[in-house]
Design goal:
The complex is a heterodimer of chains A (about 120) and B (about 110).
Chain A (H helix, E strand, L loop, with lengths): L4 E3 L2 E4 L5 E6 L6 E7 L5 E8 L2 E4 L8 E4 L6 E5 L8 E8 L10 E2 L3 E5 L1
Parallel strand pairs in A: 2-11
Antiparallel strand pairs in A: 1-3, 3-8, 4-5, 4-9, 5-6, 7-8, 9-10, 9-11
Chain B lengths: L4 E3 L2 E5 L4 E6 L6 E7 L6 E6 L5 E4 L2 E5 L5 E6 L8 E9 L2 E7 L3 E6 L1
Parallel strand pairs in B: 2-11
Antiparallel strand pairs in B: 1-3, 3-8, 4-5, 4-9, 6-7, 7-8, 9-10, 9-11
Classes of the chains: A mainly beta (about 120), B mainly beta (about 110).
Chain lengths: ~120, ~110
């Protein structure tokens, strides 16, 4: 059973470009979470999605960031007009459906975004 | 804002020694997870504790959740070089159990 798959593992973007980070959850998992890990900081929650629904985006910056989890295909975290401060490791996690199973979240290997 | 403080921040020990790392908060959590993260990789879930006073053992690792569900500890017996890594605690609370609050971690180095 493959784990949470994120790609690309490393992404370099110039300031002002767009970054698209993809996440395929574990088989059977329908809940996806995105976290950001800045240098010298702990992981910070960004957004929680279920298929075709954003459940909680309270951790997302108000501008330039968006996330989706379509009916078919991976979850996408999109950052428009990237700035140097967006450089970080972005992790996706997934958990099985069912009340109370959020604590069974498993993380992917992350995408390391570098903005130059 | 909930915060999880982990201590020590860095720990370097010799193979075979025992160690304990701590995770403390002034907030109550409904669940607490411990993860290990290696450089360039994602966090790997080690254990979830949900009941105050709960103790879980995973081979040489012993996890404890405080009675008041505000703190936790991880004890490793006879540490091995393969235990080297960043140990993270993360708490979930109430109806937002999915929104984990992470500590900054304890970076453990076990020297052969």
């Amino acid at each position: 059973n493959a784990g949470v798959m994120q790609n690309p593992r490393h992404l370099v973007r110039r300031r002002g470009q767009e970054a698209r980070l993809r996440c395929s959850p574990m088989k059977g998992h329908s809940h996806v979470y995105w976290y950001r890990q800045l240098p010298e900081e702990g992981l910070k929650f960004m957004v929680y999605l279920q298929k075709e629904n954003i459940i909680d985006e309270s951790g997302m910056p108000k501008e330039r960031f968006s996330a989706e989890f379509p009916k078919e295909g991976p979850s996408i975290l999109r950052i428009q007009q990237v700035v140097r401060g967006d450089s970080a490791a972005y992790f996706c996690a997934s958990s099985p459906p069912g009340r109370g199973r959020e604590t069974e979240a498993f993380f992917g290997q992350g995408t390391r975004l570098t903005v130059v | 804002t909930q915060l999880l403080e982990q201590s020590p921040q860095f720990l370097s020990i010799q193979e075979g020694e025992n160690l304990t790392v701590y995770c403390n908060s002034s907030s109550v959590f409904s669940s607490l997870q411990w993860y290990r993260q290696e450089p360039g990789e994602g966090p790997v879930l080690l254990v979830t504790v949900v009941t105050g006073g709960e103790v879980k053992k995973l081979k040489r690792l012993t996890f404890q959740f405080g009675d008041a569900r505000k703190d936790s500890s991880l004890h490793i017996t006879a540490a091995q070089p393969g235990d080297t890594g960043l140990y993270l605690c993360a708490g979930g609370s109430g109806g937002s159990n999915y929104k984990l609050t992470f500590g900054k971690g304890t970076l453990l180095t076990v020297n052969p």
